[in-house]
Amino acid sequence: MKIPISFKVNGDPYTVLVTPDQVLLKVLREDLGLTDTKPGCGRGDCGACTVHVNGKPVNSCLFLAVDADGTEIRTVAGLAKKGQLHPVQQAFVDEGAIQCGFCTPGMVMQAVSILEQNPSPTVDEIRKGIEGNICRCTGYKKIENAILTASKKMTERK
Q1: CA distance linking residue 21 with residue 62, whole number of Å
Q2: Are 18 and 30 in contact (CB under 8 A)?
Q3: Which residues contact 56 (CB under 8 A, 6 or more apart)?
Q4: 87-157: which CATH architecture?
Q5: Fewest C-beta in 10 Å: which of 45, 139, 143, 157?
């Protein structure tokens, strides 16, 4: 049995039919063709699939699509505005925090969430904030630096 749900993704409205057990990640990638959110472990352990639902980070591989009905969803592709990367995205590029790129969408979304909650986090707060997102390439130092750089740029602009 399929259930109709409606939501916005990066500001665009969508209505789709989903099964009760279908996860948001599958809807985004397969039903809507929005492949910027990456599948990882499928168990909520790696954070590669992190998106924001009503401003809160969630593992889209575990989040049931039916629970997204009526929500606002933001993916990494929805961060850039008018051709300009979001400060977190730009900082990841500038600091070399992207290697294989597999974890990057989820890591960027988690970093944005950290900075939205605390515009000037300490390194320890950053480490705590990203602990649910696994990166196998960078050793996290460049990611931490990118988040600190983004924090500085974002607070300077205010």
Answers
A1: 10
A2: no
A3: 113
A4: Orthogonal Bundle (1.10)
A5: 157
List all residues 6 or more positions away from 83 whose beta carbon is below 8 Å from its beta carbon.
none
CA distance 43 to 57: 15
* Cβ proximity of 129 and 123 under 8 Å: no
pTM for this entry: 0.95
Give 60-72 pLDDT, tens digit per residue.
Answer: 999 999 999 999 9
- Over range 73-80, report the average pLDDT: 98
Residue environment code for 100-138, b if the CB has 16+ CB neighbours within 10 A, otherwise e:
eebbbbbbbbbbbbbbeeeeebeeeebeebbeebbbeeb
